Amino acid sequence: MYIFDLDGTLTDSNGLWVDVDLEFLSRRGLVMTREYEDVVGRSIFPVAAQFTREYYHLADSPQSIMAEWESLAAHHYRDLVPLKAGAKEFLDQCRSRHIPMALFTACRPTLCRLVLDRFRLTGYFSHIVYAEEIGVDKHDPRCFARLSQLLDVPPRDCVLFDDNPANCATARSAGMTAVGVYDTFYDHRQEELKDSCDRYVRSLEELIQPSASE
Fold first, then answer.
1. Residue 128 in contact with residue 112, Cβ under 8 Å?
2. Entry pTM
3. Of the candidates 111, 104, 146, which has an alpha carbon nearest to the alpha carbon of residue 125?
4. Nearest of 181, 4, 171 to residue 94 by alpha carbon
5. Which end of the chain, N or C, is more open, meaning fewer C-beta atoms within 10 Å of its C-beta?
6. Distances 8 to 23, 32, 54 between C-alpha atoms, Å
7. What gap in Å lies between CA 204 and CA 181, rounded to an integer?
């Protein structure tokens, strides 16, 4: 089974979360630190919200923080976020070859559905799994073991496509094959990504093969 990440792998949407964080903090007269960016950037929504509340000593509840983030991001996912180059074509190729596909994302479910509906991608996936439903971050070793159980597919039969070096490393440690997909958001971590995956591509376009009729 092919398992696809969403943000930074299929959609060019990693950068918008920096804008969301900056807007959220600026409303409160706060500034983003490198520590904050690193922690929130790799955390599922509930963990990131709790960390934000504690880190900045906010009176906001984690639930209200998540709701505000979601409101700020909704317009981007509904109207602005583009697909990564080759994403739709590669999904078409996989479907034509009857390769089962799943989506595994740390994106908020409502936001994920907005962009999937916009590009009519929902039908490509037999399963859409949200990391926050599993309850652990993607860089947690338990994450991909639980995903494998949920999909009812052994790790050795799973291929993960992800732009995050930590996610690729964790998937490999769980016994999956990892394909690292370049994204500008992790431009400074490309050597780490190459070391963390079984195959590295600058674009999903590299995986598209000509049809037999061409």
1. yes
2. 0.88
3. 104
4. 4
5. C
6. 21, 21, 28
7. 7
Whether 2 contacts 99, CB under 8 Å: yes
DSSP assignment of 96-109 equals HTT--EEEEE-S-H
Please give the helix or strand (H or E) that residue 129 lies within, else none.
strand 127-130
73-127 pLDDT, tens digit each: 999 999 999 999 999 999 999 999 999 999 999 999 999 999 999 999 999 999 9
Using CA atoms, how far residue 54 sits from 58, 88, 140, in Å, is 7, 40, 21
Tokens encoding 196? 């963390």
User: What distance in Å separates the CA atoms of residue 87 and residue 89, rounded to the nearest whole number?
Assistant: 6
User: CA distances (Å), 70 to each of 21, 90, 162, 170, in order?
Assistant: 11, 29, 22, 27
- For the record, the structure tokens of 151 come out as 């999909």
Q: What's the one-letter identity of residue 153?
A: V
Please, which contacts does 54-58 make with residues 24 or more away whose CB atoms are closer than 8 Å? 56/25, 56/28, 56/30, 58/28
Q: Where are the alpha helices (DSSP H) in the chain?
A: 14-26, 34-41, 45-55, 62-75, 87-96, 109-119, 131-134, 141-151, 165-173, 190-196
